Amino acid sequence: xxxxxxxxxxxxxxxxxxxxxxxxxxxxxxxxxxxxxxxxxxxxxxxxxxxxxxxxxxxxxxxxxxxxxxxxxxxxxxxxxxxxxxxxxxxxxxxxxxxxxxxxxxxxxxxxxxxxxxxxxxxxxxxxxxxxxxxxxxxxxxxxxxxxxxxxxxxxxxxxxxxxxxxxxxxxxxxxxxxxxx
Length: 182
Description:
Blueprint: E1 4-7, H1 9-17, H2 21-33, E2 36-40, H3 41-62, H4 67-73, H5 86-103, E3 107-110, H6 117-127, H7 132-144, E4 148-150, H8 154-160, E5 165-167, H9 172-178
Parallel strand pairs: 1-2, 1-4, 2-3, 4-5
Helix pairs in contact: 1-2, 3-5, 6-7
């Protein structure tokens, strides 16, 4: 059996920002080995949301606001008065698109193949203690046909492991061994 990795948003974000070495190394190894690797189109939405929030906070810091003031304004990010300008939104999208297509062309951004995808996501959300976003990722990983889910979210990993082999980035060798691939 060959590995087919599903990367949770946090692992891809780690690599993009070079913020957690085990995630970076795992993604480099996946590419070097030529293993299949996917995530959901939902991941792009989460990445856009996170990058937009970072830009929003950056703008508030440039305006001289303190962290205590910024916390109070985070909920206003989607209001026209406070939100990002169209040019900023476009720049974030273009930058993210460029990073993903040039830096990580081996990661496919898939739509789940199971026709009952939303039913599965709803089932995971209602029958476990994971939130809606993680339920979408779990249903995606299964629907895409992946056999290893990689996440840095320990709570999500423990619950997802009942449905698919789930590992932390630093547990890649352990995951491969479980699939009898190491």
